[in-house]
């Protein structure tokens, strides 16, 4: 999976752009993985995870949990 190699905010944004261009933002499982990476895996990307979260028209419990967990573990939630 593409985001497993994502180690910084720049690469996370590139993956997000790829997803938008290729129409993948309607697939909640893919979006959930992107938000998981932004919330928990990529250092300093929690603010970006919140932006992604705010832009998703349809949420599920898993996506909400990723953002809550990342916020709870962050020094700056």
Kindly summarize this structure in a few lines.
It is built from 4 helices and no strands. The protein is mostly helical and 77 residues long.
Describe the structure.
- With 77 residues, this protein is mainly alpha-helical.
- The protein has one domain.
- Helices cover 65% and strands 0% of the residues.
- The chain has 4 helices and no strands.
- The chain is globular, with a radius of gyration of 11 Å.
- The N and C termini lie far apart (27 Å).
- The mean pLDDT is 89.
Rg over alpha carbons: 11 Å
Q: How far is it from the N-terminal to the C-terminal residue, by CA?
A: 27 Å
Please tell me the overall pLDDT. Answer: 89
Domain module tally: 1
What structural category characterises the helix and strand content? mainly alpha
The proportion of residues forming helix, as a percent range, comes to: 55-70%
From the spread of the alpha carbons, the general shape counts as: globular
Number of helices, where a helix is a run of at least 4 consecutive DSSP H or I residues: 4
Task: Give descriptors for this structure.
77 residues, mainly alpha, globular
How would you summarize the topology of this molecule?
Blueprint: H1 9-21, H2 28-41, H3 46-55, H4 61-73
Helix pairs in contact: 2-3, 2-4, 3-4
